[in-house]
Design a protein that fits this description.
The complex is a heterodimer of chains A (489) and B (479). Chain A has 489 residues and is α/β, with parallel strands linked by helices. Chain A has helices spanning 8-16, 22-40, 51-63, 106-113, 156-163, 180-186, 220-230, 274-289, 302-320, 339-350, 353-366, 372-395, 418-423, 429-434, 463-477, 479-482, and strands at 43-46, 75-79, 117-122, 169-174, 189-192, 212-217, 260-264, 293-297, 398-402, 438-445, 451-457. Classes of the chains: A alpha/beta (489), B alpha+beta (479).
Chain lengths: 489, 479
């Protein structure tokens, strides 16, 4: 048995039974990083230097009968757009190559309150813009199932690190699919919570009205455990929902009898790889077998979702990224004689191609004369999408779709074709536009041995329902017992 | 055509810093000054990942300002981002309000030569102030100070209803006094907490169309505003008279040269790309909230003026001038509480105090003595302890070294002589020394009495009670 193969709840059980120590756990993960990082390249910054020391100390405390939290000493990986005091937060950009945040994000305070041990900051597409992690300024992360392939994105480093056993779990962020799509590509479980459930304070903003932080884990149980830690109202975030705190582990019940599941037909049409489609349909059949009621349904505005998403996300990004101007922090050009040069050259040299493309798109759609035709219209479509979800959830408990139209593609095959790259988000963006929660869980492998993910979508703040459905399917199909990443070269 | 054939049309955008304790989107202090970058935090410095949270006091203060200027209060309003790059704007956008301001359709009344005139207010919205650039005098660069970044502002936009620089001045003074009365801003122009953008256009008298306007930005003294209007309106008239066309542009007023300069050329016309700030939620305001503020609004200058005329029996002019400054008005009321003599207190304010402020170029807030001390001074006159001429001397001392007037009088030995025997003695002495005047008076020259009284005053160094002196001279002369 390798400790790096275990989930957090399995590790916690063994700790409780005194079969292992936190030192053992941390050693196992750090050794795994040392072994696999050259192949996978998931880390921007490693922070495991003092991990063993910290783990030993907590072990000592436990031995001496001191009260420690259940997750004390458990390792974790953090996407590199979540601000960490004393450790660089680069957003995988040259712009923030040496940036150290003066404060911790709210989710980091929560992780630190648990006394978890952060093993590193994980790679991503620059400023979370991308679906393959190829747009990182530093390195291209590989998919542990096939090193020639991308891990998905933008939280590709987080998903790959979890899949490879380099961290037991990680935090990602999801603006249009950035937790779920890499989870589908890497065979992990990725949850995008309802907008407002997790504080965004300290998450470097890409698109403020769509961004959410969420867990990437090896199984559904860990997803619920980590969600328990990070969810909750935050006074520092005006968009954070002030609702009662829940215990999501209570929804880990293997039972879907009578659960009404809708299959939106638009997600099974053209552009969806047949093997992916088949795997998700099989999952639907599995649910039926377990007593759920499965029906075809429709989300008519799906066709407009991608365009709407790119208008809103780019518009907000163009404004959010204005602060990277070379004045107070971040990259400043050496090549300037006046203020305009500082702005132009710092931003031209500090941002990558995809980021610049989106800033230009966003600036355009907000410009006077175009605002009504693009941005204003997109906001209207957004309202229609919200209404459609509302109607669907009057009828169904959850919706089931593929997470991504394809399995992980090969590195370099899409990075020069932005439109094709944008299509990787087609199944996930509507969920962010609607603000509803969704989870991606593995539902099989394709003929090339790559994992396929299916997406369970729930109504606002009904994470319990999708967690329960995901848990039930997971317990029945035992994907993790059957398949493991092969690190194929 | 001559300049007199033109009419000047003006509208004002007044920015007023709100006197909340903390900034609009974070908990940093709003205090003026301080070492550069000491009143800031990751939020107002726009560190990555930070988010704004709206200070509810800002909404309350803006609603107050709206109600005090007869505005309608929007039940739903929102914050928008105004995007542009400048080093004093750390987020590269200013959080402001674009199409759904907090307050709309108000007005305030001003006094003009032709009577009361109503100036319409189009809107009042809330926004954040920017930081400040300090340019190194040796040209080693510019330094950004973010202490002011995120200090809350309201922008009060008037309709183009102003027609002369006198009207602009009364409008601004009125607005300033209203904001002071409701205590939402200290309106210290020298600290930039009240600044105005002035929109100016000219048209031939009788014309219904507006001319092309220019906007003079960020003016923070009455003097420069009035000079700038004079200069800019004349400039526009000259352009038109010379067959040219006024260009719509933003101008900077230069106090030293006394001219306006174009701020940016047209190719760089700004597109601010306003859009709703997704980090903030809609501002929802209930009727109950509005009524609560409305019911707790303090008395405004117009109402105080009316009260002074009715209760204090003060002239309209005095009442208007004193109520224009909340400080002076409070000074009056507090002093009256002590001495119960509004007329005399008002006279002091209108004469000696106003003269002193003008000479020293001070604001009323800088009057060194307290209202209680002023009231005490008036009380001393009324009690007959000192004469009004001594009182003027005491007041002059109070400006130099504010202390209890009793002490000043004592120190200088200015206590009025009201002792009958002492006065009688002086009267007799003066009569015996001025036989000629006595004879003059008896011959019917009433003026001679004045001379005699003056001599007695001189002899007592002004300390004799003038009423008693008069009475006693008459008694003696008519014996």
């Amino acid at each position: 048995m390798n400790l790096y193969d275990l989930t957090v709840h399995e590790l916690v059980d063994k700790l409780k039974n005194k079969e292992i120590t936190l030192e053992d756990i941390n050693k196992s993960y750090i050794e795994r990083i040392n072994e696999k990082e050259n192949d996978v390249k998931a880390f921007v910054t490693r922070t495991d230097e003092n991990a063993i020391e910290k783990a030993k100390k907590i072990d000592e405390n436990i031995k001496n009968g001191k009260e420690v939290s259940e997750l004390s000493g458990i390792p974790i990986g953090i996407k590199d757009n979540i601000c960490t005091k004393n450790v660089k937060t680069t957003c995988s950009s040259k712009m923030l190559e040496n940036f150290v945040s003066p404060y911790d994000a709210t989710v980091m305070n929560k992780i630190n309150d648990q006394n978890m041990i952060m093993l590193g900051k994980l790679n991503m597409d620059e400023f979370a813009m991308g679906a393959s992690t190829e747009y990182s300024y530093f390195k291209k992360t590989s998919n542990p199932w096939d090193l020639k392939r991308v891990p998905g994105g933008s939280s590709g480093g987080s998903a790959a690190a979890v899949a490879a056993g380099m961290v037991p779990w990680a935090l990602g962020s999801d603006t249009g699919g950035s937790i779920r799509q890499p989870s589908a590509f890497c065979g992990t479980v990725g949850l995008k919570p309802t907008y407002g459930l997790v504080s965004r304070y300290g998450l470097v903003a890409f698109a403020s009205s769509l961004d959410q932080i969420g867990p990437i884990t090896k199984d559904v149980t860990d997803s619920a455990i980590l969600l328990n830690i990070i969810a909750g109202h935050d006074e520092m975030d005006s968009t954070s929902a002030n609702i009662e705190k829940k215990d999501y582990t209570k929804s880990l019940v293997k039972d879907v009898k009578g659960l009404k599941i809708g299959l939106p037909k638009e997600y099974f049409g053209e552009g969806i790889n047949p093997e992916v489609k088949q795997a998700v349909m099989n999952a639907a059949k599995e649910y039926e077998k377990m007593g759920a009621i499965v029906e075809e349904c429709s989300i008519s505005v799906t066709d407009y979702a991608l365009a709407t998403y790119y208008i809103i996300a780019c518009a907000e990004a163009s404004s959010n990224l204005g602060r990277f101007d070379g004045i107070r922090y971040g990259y400043r050009t050496k090549n300037f004689t006046n203020l305009t040069d500082i702005y132009k050259n710092s931003r031209s040299e500090g941002f990558g191609k995809e980021v610049k493309r989106r800033i230009i798109l966003g600036t355009y759609v907000l410009s006077s004369g175009y605002y009504d035709a693009y941005y204003k219209k997109a906001l209207k479509v957004r309202q229609v999408v919200k209404n459609e979800f509302k109607k669907l959830f009057e009828k169904y408990d959850i919706l089931l779709t593929p997470t991504s139209p394809t399995v992980a593609f090969e590195i370099g095959t899409r990075s020069n074709n932005p439109l094709e790259m944008y299509l990787a988000d087609i199944c996930t963006v509507s969920i962010n536009i609607g603000g509803v929660p969704a989870i991606s869980i593995p539902c099989g492998l394709d003929s090339s041995g790559m994992p396929i993910g299916c997406q369970l979508i729930g109504n606002h703040f009904e994470e319990e329902k999708i967690l329960r459905a995901a848990f039930t399917y997971e317990q029945e199909t035992k994907f993790r017992d059957k398949y493991k990443p092969t690190f194929k070269k | 055509m001559a300049r007199e054939d033109y009419e000047i049309v003006m509208g004002l955008e007044v920015h007023s810093e709100l006197s909340t304790k903390t900034k609009i989107f974070c908990s940093c202090p709003t205090e003026f000054g301080g070492e550069p970058n000491t009143h800031c935090c990751p939020i107002c410095m726009a560190m990555p990942g930070t988010l704004p949270v709206l200070n509810e006091k800002v909404v309350e203060y803006a609603v107050k300002a709206g109600l005090a200027t007869n505005c309608e209060i929007a039940r739903t309003s929102k914050n928008d981002r105004k995007n542009y790059f400048y080093p004093d704007l750390p987020k590269a956008y200013q959080i402001s309000q674009f199409d759904m301001p907090l307050c709309i359709n108000g007005h305030i009344d001003i006094e003009t030569e032709d009577g009361t005139k109503s100036i319409r207010i189009e809107r009042i919205h809330i926004e954040e102030d920017a930081g400040k650039l300090n340019h190194d005098e040796y040209g080693r660069g510019s330094f950004v100070d973010l202490n002011r970044a995120g200090v809350p502002l309201i922008e009060i936009v008037s309709k183009p209803d102003l027609r002369s620089k006198e009207e602009v001045e009364s409008y601004l003074r009125k607005l300033k006094s209203i904001l002071e009365y409701i205590e939402v801003s200290d309106c210290k122009m020298q600290e930039g907490s009240l600044r105005a953008d002035v929109n100016v256009s000219v048209r031939k008298k009788g014309s219904k169309e507006f001319g092309t306007r220019t906007e003079m930005k960020n003016m923070n003294s009455f003097k420069s505003i009035l000079r700038a209007i004079e200069y800019e309106s004349n400039r526009q008239i000259d352009v038109i008279e010379n067959g040219g066309e006024v260009e719509q542009e933003s101008l900077r007023w230069d106090d030293i040269s006394g001219k306006t300069f174009s701020m940016r050329d047209k190719e760089n016309a700004q597109d601010y790309r306003y859009f709703p700030d997704p980090d903030l939620v809609a501002i929802k305001i209930s009727d109950e909230y509005i009524n609560n503020i409305k019911n707790n609004l303090p008395e405004l200058p117009d109402s105080r003026k009316k009260r002074y005329m009715e209760e204090y029996k003060l002239p309209e002019y005095d009442s208007r001038l004193i109520t224009a400054s909340k400080y002076l008005s409070d000074l009056l009321e507090k002093a009256v509480e002590v001495c119960n003599n509004p007329k005399t207190v008002s006279n002091f304010i209108m004469t000696d105090i106003t003269k002193f402020l003008n000479e020293k170029e001070l604001e009323p807030e800088e009057i060194p003595f307290t209202a209680e001390q002023l009231g005490e001074l008036v009380k001393l006159i009324d009690k007959g302890t000192i004469s009004s001429s001594i009182a003027k001397k005491v007041l002059a001392e109070m400006f130099e070294k504010p202390e209890d007037p009793n002490k000043i009088i004592e120190k200088n030995g200015w206590i009025q002589i009201s002792d009958e025997d002492a006065i009688k003695e002086v009267v007799k002495k003066v009569l015996s020394e001025n036989e000629k005047s006595v004879n003059d008076y008896k011959a019917g020259k009433d003026k001679a009495l004045g001379y005699l009284v003056g001599q007695a005053m001189k002899a007592t160094k002004g300390k004799a009670n003038p009423g008693m002196l008069n009475k006693m001279f008459l008694e003696e002369l008519n014996k």
